[in-house]
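> forwarded from #structure-qc
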């Protein structure tokens, strides 16, 4: 009996020793994993509704998706809404580059830091208007209408020196799909960018009435001018909208696209090449020339536009707008203004300005 008791005691001691060794190994493994993956166990914002008590947020990893957007003081709320819609509708590692002017940077920084966008990966870059010296007409009317930041898209490689591929977006957009899918848009070999053709099935109805043929080249360029004639372009070629660009920056650099765009800007100041019926952005004509039949196409549902034109509310159904991956309020009527269509969609993503400077204009109902 004594021997049996000794054997039992020895077995118990061995079991305890074994458990102690296992516990220590597990603790060491936990420490190792924490050092290797300090973010393990945290949650993405999309998972917060499943675990409301957990407040930590995972730093997004994986392939970076560079997105460039511009921010002007009078439209700052647009940038915030656009960024919020992109960030909340994707788990991708989106990195924003926000191009702005000196007088806006502090306001933007404060706005982002005081909202849920403070965890977004972004950098603010100051645009240098001197870049446009000699490249914009000195006509007073044109100068007054020119917004320097609209030309930032011409300088994508300069703002994103390490990127091989990137997305440019106008500020008057809302993204409802996963931007990872847009980033994966196929760009054909030899093409430096993909655009949305103005004759595509989703937005072809959005032709701007009374502003010439704004869905083809003759609506943007003066085909009577010798420099335009020499290019041999067909005037009836379908134009594209540069409010959304998926760019192959490696090819952009190789073809020196920026230099080509600057050349046509400078030539226009001398020869007045743009169409007299040009309704909107003067950034479009040089892009149409440089990318004539040398660009890839974007899925039409990834650029449903003309929401800022007259009659947009009748042109698109609520169901269609809900199904769209990206909405663009190009045109005179913006979703932060009083007379735009589908402002409720934009309002969903807008984050109020903590400084109180920016206020969407809304109809008052009694």
């Amino acid at each position: 009996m004594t021997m049996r008791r000794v054997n039992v005691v020895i077995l118990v001691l061995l079991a305890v020793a074994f458990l102690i060794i296992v516990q220590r190994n597990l603790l060491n493994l936990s420490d190792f994993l924490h050092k290797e993956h300090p973010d393990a166990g945290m949650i993405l914002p999309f998972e917060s509704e499943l675990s409301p008590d957990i407040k930590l947020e995972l730093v997004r990893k994986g392939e970076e998706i560079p997105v460039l957007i511009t921010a002007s003081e009078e439209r700052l709320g647009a940038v915030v809404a656009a960024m919020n819609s992109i960030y909340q509708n994707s788990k991708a590692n989106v990195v924003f580059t926000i191009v702005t002017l000196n007088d806006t940077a502090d306001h933007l920084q404060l706005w982002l830091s005081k909202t849920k966008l403070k965890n977004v990966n972004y950098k603010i870059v100051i645009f240098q208007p001197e870049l446009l010296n000699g490249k914009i007409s000195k006509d007073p009317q044109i100068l007054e209408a020119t917004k320097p930041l609209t030309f930032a898209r011409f300088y994508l490689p300069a703002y994103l020196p390490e990127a091989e591929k990137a997305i440019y977006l106008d500020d008057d957009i809302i993204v409802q799909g996963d931007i990872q899918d847009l980033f994966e848009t196929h760009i054909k070999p030899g093409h430096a960018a993909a655009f949305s053709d103005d004759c595509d099935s989703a937005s072809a109805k959005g032709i701007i009435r009374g502003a010439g043929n704004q869905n083809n080249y003759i609506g943007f360029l003066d085909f009577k001018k010798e420099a335009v004639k020499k290019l041999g372009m067909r005037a009836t070629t379908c134009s594209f909208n540069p409010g959304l660009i998926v760019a192959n920056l490696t090819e952009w650099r190789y073809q020196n696209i920026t230099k080509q765009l600057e050349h046509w800007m400078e030539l226009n100041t001398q020869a007045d090449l743009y169409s007299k019926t040009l309704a909107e952005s003067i950034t479009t004509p040089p892009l149409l020339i440089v990318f004539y039949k040398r660009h890839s196409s974007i899925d039409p549902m990834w650029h449903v536009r003309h929401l800022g034109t007259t009659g947009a509310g009748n042109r698109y159904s609520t169901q269609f707008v809900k199904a769209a991956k990206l909405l663009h309020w190009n045109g005179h009527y913006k979703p932060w203004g009083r007379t735009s269509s589908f402002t409720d969609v934009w309002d969903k993503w807008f984050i109020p300005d903590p400084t109180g400077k920016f206020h969407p204009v809304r109809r008052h109902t009694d």
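QC bot note: The beta strands are 64-71, 93-100, 121-126, 165-169, 173-175, 193-197, 240-248, 296-297, 326-328. The radius of gyration is 27 Å.
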